[in-house]
Amino acid sequence: MSFSKLVSLFLILHLLNPTVVLSSSSLSSSNGLSEIPKKFLDFAKRQELVDWMVGIRRKIHENPELGYEEFETSKLIRQELDKMGIPYKYPVSVTGVVGFVGTGKPPFVAIRADMDAFSMQELVEWEHKSKHPGKMHACGHDAHVSMLLGAAKILKEHLEELKGTVVLVFQPAEEGGGGAKKMLDEGVLEDVDAIFGLHVAPDQPIGTVASRSGPLLAGSGFFDAVISGKGGHAAIPQHSIDPILAASNVVVSLQHLVSREADPLDSQVLTVAKFQGGGAFNVIPDSVTIGGTFRAFSKESLLQLKQRIEEVIKGQAAVQRCSATVDFYENKKPVPLFPPTINNKDLHELFQKVAGDMLGTDKIKDMQPQMGSEDFSFFQEAIPGYFFFLGMQNEDSPPLKYFRSPYFMINEDVLPYGAALHASLAARYLLAAEPKNHSPLENSHDEL
After folding, report:
1. Whole-model pTM?
2. N or C: less crowded end of the chain, CB within 10 Å?
3. Overall domain count for the chain
């Protein structure tokens, strides 16, 4: 059966059987469900599979590519899927790849990895250091791709465990490029009932996971403001309208907009990280540019904060006889606002069962909401989704550097855990999903 026919079949079957719910009885550890995570982890720890994932990760690390430029990364992914006999759709959102493992029938569940690197010069001296100056996998996306391919191999070797279809989402441009939103707009999740994603955590012990139900990561936005006055010589400031003074007052006033509440979910963050004005010691400039980011744990708070930022900037500028324009990149950036990452309650329960069966309940950490943002949240706005962090710090090793550091490193021992968790969550979700309506045509089509 051709791939185009497979995709059409997916659409037809899902329209006939669109809604899936998780049954509390089927989420139990009966009928051998609790053995799946252990079995998958044992499989993922086989030396040949570990070596394969490590090799893929190192190839990607050596050749980092920025958002929507992941052509070689995408090519490597497609080559490995071809070797496994896994059909896929390409290109999706420029460089994205979407694969399919399972029966080709509902229910559909997705597991996602981001592919892009970061604009940074790597300072780690090792055999597989980035070969492209100014580009580095400083956030672990190379490991994420390797783990998702590892999950694909596990699932392909355990098709008997799949009672539906797993959609493999290899996403471009997570680092501010809005790749998730672009994939969503292109219909990647139209047939999918739930989606899972993960991120490595350098500050958590290996073999542990951390997450929570509800808001996990903040939504975020960016702004630039140009505050204009009247330039002149510093010796006669009375003949000028000083935009630096106005911009300084704006920055102070902006800090009063946000609050750190006892409940982290009520907190907001606003950071002015750019302040550019003037180029000489004795010249008052005509204008000053400031810029920064703002964050909150609900979209409503985010929009309210956005409105107040503009009001404060323009109002404080006017107090100093200056004018101001504020740009929130609504017509420039692919996504002007990232929504908060909010985990589905039912999927949280499933995650706890799967992770507990695989790692032990003592290895599941309840994570406090963090002000970082993640474009996985766009997927969660469309369908139930769950995002979690996977520890990779060895107890007897020096502390790993945090994300966005030029010294960031991956502990490759983490790869089997990520692959097995991806595969187990997908397989257990499909086994727990009970279609509300059964299609009479469901058994009349060939499987993948």
Report:
1. 0.89
2. N
3. 2
